[in-house]
Amino acid sequence: MAEALFDQVGSEEVIPAPAARRLAGGFTVDRELPMAHLEITQLSKRYGAFVALDGIELAVDEGEFLVLLGPSGCGKTTLLRAIAGLDRQDEGRIVHAGRDISRLPPGQRDYGIVFQSYALFPNLSVADNVAYGLQHGRSDRRLIRQRVEEMLELVGLPGTQAKYPAQLSGGQQQRIALARALATAPDLLLLDEPLSALDAIERVRLRGEIRALQTRLGVTTIMVTHDQEEALAMADRIVVMQRGRIQQIGAPRDIYRQPGNDFVADFIGRGNLLVAERVGPHHARSGDLLLRTGAELPAASTARFYVRPEDIRLHDTLDQGENTFYGHVLKCEFLGPYSLVTLRAPTADGRPLVAQFSSNYLCGREIRPGALLRLGIPAEHLQALPEAA
Amino acid sequence: MILSLPLRWCADGERLPGRLLLVAAAALALFLVLPLLALLIGSVRDDEGAFSLLRFAEFAATPGMATAAWNTLWVAALVTALTVPLAFLYAYAIQRACLPLRGLWRLIGLSALLGPSLVGAIAFIQWFGTQGVLKAWLGGASVYGPVGIVMATVYAAFPHALMILVVALATADGRLYEAADALGASRWRRFRTVTLPAAKYGLISAALVVFAYSVSEFGIPKVIGGNFPVLAVEVYVQVVGQHNFGRGAIVALLLLLPVLFAFAIDTWVQRRQQASLTARAVPYQPRPDRRRDLPLLLYCLLLATAMLGVLGMAMYTSLVRFWPYNLELTLDHYIYGLAEAGVLAAWQNSLKIAALTALIGTPLVFFTAWLLERTPARPAALATAVRAMAALPMGVPGLVLGIGYILFFNSPDNPLNGLYHTLTIMVVATVVHFYTPCHLTAVTALKSLDREFEAVSASLKVSRFVTLWRVTLPVCLPAVLEIARYLFINAMTTVSALVFLYSSETLPAAVAILNLDEAGELGPAAAMATLIVLTSALISLVYSLLTHLLLRRHQAWRNFQR
């Protein structure tokens, strides 16, 4: 047992698990139907009349960092807890590494978990907390001590063995919780809003560390968060959820650039909704604006575009290039690295547009309310949204 | 290689907590619900065992019953009206003023809890009775009757109200007071608009507890009430004096109703209470203010003196040869009145009962609360039923429980018939009688732990029972010790349920006081009361030392808590 315990996190050189498995020889190749590492089929759960999960289908690859993102009550935590076996689903299957774990109690599944509240045992020292899952029966004390040392090194807190959780800062406590979850070398790491209780600076620092650690260990990880920036910064793939359903699954860039529906577009980043009339395969009209689009427009008579604030460009006042127009500045918010400018533009519904100009782009120029600006939206940033559901 | 895991899967199946909870539910049903049902059924049966409302008709026709019911009600109302303001001001002085020796005032304020309720009755007889030193203060009114009952009940109920109000006034949002000051609110307006609303639920709770206490207390009217009829004494007379269990059951039911009603209201009110303190609240820190502190200090001094006067008089009575004619100090009441008369065994019985109650009750209460709060014990309906049963004893007066026990366990059809009159049944009755406050203490402690401890343990493949032992229990240790102390002291001082359950071999000390008083032996009665007070005080002292030492030596982590 001891050797098995120590082989995932070895010395300095660690081979990521998927790579190691591939090296070990043809593990996934021979399968007729290659299955994902964690496969969730038709998972549903209700609390009374409230539908928490509604037919969730999800496949997680080995070594992947997957983020479940959505507003509170969207079902992301319920999904994580179903994977953990803490809240049993009503229907559906969860298969982990080829084993059907749908009905197994938490103790018979194979994962480590980290909660928002850290959930460190306050009466146990850091060493005892990290060793909590290692002390089964007559396990070798020396090996446990060594393992604890290794784990504390891994999370950047060597030498804290004798301290109690209350003596550590929030960020340090969460690192200990991470060490405790990883100490038993689980095959799956579940993170339930692990950064939400931390202050802003600590949050950014720890999210980088967690991601680096995950890449190094290659442990398949599922994280729940409501913070889109966190999701974009950490995930290999993001699963956007709402009302118990998956809205979109994709790489951070794709989710941001090509939101699959209105909800995703709205939830990830800011944006302007532009409604326009289709006048040609590549042209649409909204009020006085005639816009050329990059991709071909669908056949429907109206098209809707989601324009990110940073996609609105500032042009020379006399520039008459395609997709340019005049806008009146209504309001300008200076936010340090960039400014948010609210503009009135000759669109169909007259709804103000919000544009974002980075400070180095403006070169210290000030934008005052009432000013007239020449603006443009590059054609490649005009991609029609699917019809509203 | 990665699947190094299945080290050992948890020994506790998912079903074990549910099964254990079922055992707890069965125990509570057997020792709480069934006796109460026996009482209900007993009241609607005639002597042949057929259904009839005869007993109610009989009861209504009994002369004096209406008077007793009315007396019970107005005395309880008066006691409530006196006790709650007295206790509120006292609690206010402790929590919201800058008084020296706050701990001492608090200790004296709670001192009545150390002895049986009869201590007050005995002391008031000595102060204001026929031979009383302060008899003139009553201006011709006799202490034997409503006057004495009210005084002694106020004294006995005071600490119960004080405990609730001290907690209600302990936490206040300092920002509200700053806002009131910034808006130029007067002292009175600030009190009316900030202090009182925040303590509203505490006040309602205290009032209901005091009312219920007064309604169900029968030792006091028995000792100091003279010929003033109240329902509680009526039950005692019917059951113990005349062995008329049926009529006793009717009166007990009549007592049960107002008390259950009071606690139903309390539960409802508490449920409406929103957490008034948010995480962002700033604790209120009183600043010295002579105009407020000096009158409050005088008030505390006055009340503390009075309370010590009551306790001191009971002790003094046990030490003088013959009040008020021969004031020579002597231990005769202890030596001849108790030891030689063979009554001292009662004190030993009480020690046994109290120790067993604490030793059995504490783990039982804590473990059941743990099953409810920290395990996914199924089915949910079972958990709801256990919660309801755990809350019920608060609304059941001790003597109602006692009569229920007689009717249920004394029945020849009951296979547990052998338990009747044993020490075991007395311990069980005491645990059940004081179950609710202990349960609430345990639940509060368990709820304050991180929700996810068990989830983390499960993910680490550590059994929840191991986590209970290694984490939950050590962290909740102060609450566990507090439960043990509470059970011990209450078992030591209680009269109400046990008075119906003892035999000549299992006579408890507090009941012995009642019997001694009935025999006119006030000196030995006071001596026994003093023994009980000293025992409780000693246990409280041991408890304080124990918590202090335990927490210092084995719980170093607490020192870092922020």
Overview of the structural elements:
The complex is a heterodimer of chains A (about 400) and B (about 550). With about 400 residues, chain A is of the alpha+beta class. Chain A is about 25% helix and about 30% strand. Chain A has eleven helices and 19 strands. Chain A has helices spanning about 1-5, 15-25, 75-85, 125-130, 140-155, 170-185, 200-215, 230-235, 250-255, 260-265, 360; strands at about 40-45, 50-60, 65-70, 90-95, 100, 110-115, 190, 220-225, 235-240, 245-250, 270-280, 285, 290, 300-305, 315, 325-335, 340-345, 355-360, 370-375. In chain A, the strands form four sheets. Chain A has a six-stranded mixed sheet with strand order 6-7-8-3-9-10, sandwiched between helices. Chain A has a five-stranded antiparallel sheet with strand order 15-19-16-17-18. In chain A, strand 9 and strand 10 form a beta hairpin. Chain A is elongated, with a radius of gyration of 25 Å. Chain B is mainly alpha-helical. Chain B has helices at about 15-45, 55-60, 65-95, 100-110, 120-130, 145-170, 175-180, 185-215, 220-225, 230-240, 245-270, 290-320, 330-340, 345-375, 380-390, 400-410, 425-435, 435-445, 455-460, 465-475, 475-495, 510-520, 520-555, and strands at about 320, 325-330. Chain B has a two-stranded antiparallel ribbon with strand order 1-2. In chain B, strand 1 (about 320) and strand 2 form a beta hairpin. In chain B, helix 1 crosses helix 11 (about 245-270), helix 1 (about 15-45) crosses helix 15 (about 380-390) and helix 22 (about 510-520) packs antiparallel against helix 23 (about 520-555). Classes of the chains: A alpha+beta (about 400), B mainly alpha (about 550). The interface of A and B includes residues 5, 108 and 113 of A.
